[in-house]
Amino acid sequence: MKSNSTGGISLKIAVPKISKSLQELDVRQALLEDYYVSDGLVTKLELDEEQEDKIVFDQIHFRDISMEGVRFQQVEFIDCIIEKCDLSNVDFGNAVFHRVEILSSKLVGANISQSRMTDVKVVDTVANYVSLSFSKLKKVSFTKTSFNRADFIETTFDKVNFEGCELNEANFNGTALNGVDLSSNTYEQLTVSLDKMQGCTVSTEQAIGFAKSLGLQIKE
Q1: 202 or 8, which is more confident?
Q2: What residues contact residue 150 under an 8 Å CB cut-off, 6+ apart?
Q3: Integer Cα distance of 142 and 8 in angstroms
Q4: Residue 1, pLDDT above cutoff 60
């Protein structure tokens, strides 16, 4: 279903508290010294495939790097910018994101289930097949991002906005969509729990599609 509506709701999301003049940081060296990595620009990254210890990234600007396939047992991103990065197939289950911007990046197949996101913006990103199931999202904005076949199963939304996103075959089963505006987003198929659609904003065309899914006959 497609819509030309501008849609969306106005969210006041706190921006990352991060310096504009960060020095280049060697993450591998920093991790040898401590598992709290702060105040740096990261443009090169070499990590073991699995990081077992809890890692905190605080006031870090990741730019043009790949974390593809990396698994963090526990990770927190606080006041971070992730720009033009490839996070495809990462395992960030149980992660914490607080005041984070993800810009023009890839999250294809990423596992970010059971995570907590607060004051997060995701813009112009490819996140097909991503899993955010069983997560808690508060003040999160997704803009011009592809979530085809993504999972938002039993995810808790509190002031969450989708604007200009692709949601084809995304799965929102068990997720309450009260306050969510889907009208500016596109999809051909969408899985939702109809009993949790109260308070969700949709376009006329989308509303007809949901009515048909209930078995109603629509007379043009």
Answers
A1: 202
A2: 127, 128, 129, 130, 131, 132, 167, 170, 171
A3: 10
A4: no
Range 80-83, long-range pairs (CB < 8 A, 24+ positions):
80/16, 80/18, 81/16, 81/18
Give the per-residue pLDDT at 4.
39
Q: Which two tokens stand for residue 92?
A: 């960030």
Q: Does residue 6 surpass a pLDDT of 90?
A: no
Q: How far apart are CA 186 and CA 30, in angstroms?
A: 43
Rounded Cα distance, 35 and 30, in Å: 7
| CA-based nearest residue to 159, from 139, 145, 187, 132 | 139
pLDDT of residue 116: 98
Q: What is the DSSP letter of 20?
A: S
What CA–CA distances, in Å, run from 197 to 150, 167, 187, 211? 18, 16, 17, 12
Residue pair 133/155 in contact by the 8 Å Cβ criterion: yes
- Output the pTM of the full model: 0.89
Spatial separation of the C-alpha atoms in residues 140 and 157, rounded to whole Å: 9
Q: What secondary structure letter does DSSP report for 17?
A: -
Tokens of 151: 């999972």
Contacts 24+ apart (CB under 8 A), 158-161: 159/9, 159/11, 161/8, 161/9, 161/11
